């Protein structure tokens, strides 16, 4: 099994098969517009620009499960990300990452890379999951890990 077996709704409402990312290194991130980690959008965009021509993409999944820090509509979120951080990487519709309504993709990637103490829930906004070219989740990064600190891991997968 790999992430390519999943579909996700893009921020504009279009249903997308993650199979279209086959062969790319991905960084899947649950995001929020009103979080202390929101400025990470800038570094995520920087990673995307630095490595997209080499086969890398960031996939942003807004989530309102952590202190309601993503209350807006998809249109609000898209506008916020573009205007404030120049985001051009793929963004998806708002999802739950934990609980009974968790998006199936997040259920899968959480189980592939348990967090601290073996728990597989997402603890907060801007948890990052690194995926190799074959769709395997290879590493989880805590929200406190800055995207720029992941560059070496991305480069290792791209080489």
UniProtKB/TrEMBL annotation:
GO molecular-function terms, A-Z: peroxidase activity
Keyword Oxidoreductase: yes
Annotated ranges, domain Thioredoxin: 1-159
Keyword annotations of the record: Oxidoreductase, Peroxidase
A Pfam family it matches: GSHPx
InterPro entries assigned to the protein according to its UniProt record, in alphabetical order: Glutathione_peroxidase, GPX_AS, GPX_CS, Thioredoxin-like_sf, Thioredoxin_domain
GO biological process, one term: cellular response to oxidative stress
Active site: 35
Family listed: Belongs to the glutathione peroxidase family.
Protein name, per record: Glutathione peroxidase
Source organism of the structure: Neobacillus rhizophilus
């Amino acid at each position: 099994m790999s992430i390519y077996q999943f579909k996700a709704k893009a921020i504009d409402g279009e249903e997308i098969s993650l199979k279209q990312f086959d062969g790319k290194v991905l960084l899947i991130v649950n995001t929020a517009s009103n979080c202390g980690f929101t400025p990470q959008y800038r570094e995520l965009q920087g990673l995307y620009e630095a490595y997209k021509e080499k086969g890398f993409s960031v996939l942003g999944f807004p989530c309102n499960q952590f202190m309601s820090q993503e209350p807006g509509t998809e249109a609000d979120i898209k506008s916020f990300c573009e205007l404030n951080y120049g985001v051009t990487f793929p963004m998806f519709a708002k999802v739950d990452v934990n609980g009974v309504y968790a998006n199936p993709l997040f259920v899968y990637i959480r189980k592939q890379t348990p967090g601290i103490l073996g728990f597989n829930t997402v603890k907060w906004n801007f948890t990052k999951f690194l995926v190799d070219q074959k769709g395997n989740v290879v590493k989880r990064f805590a929200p406190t890990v800055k995207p720029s600190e992941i560059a070496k891991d991305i480069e290792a997968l791209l080489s």
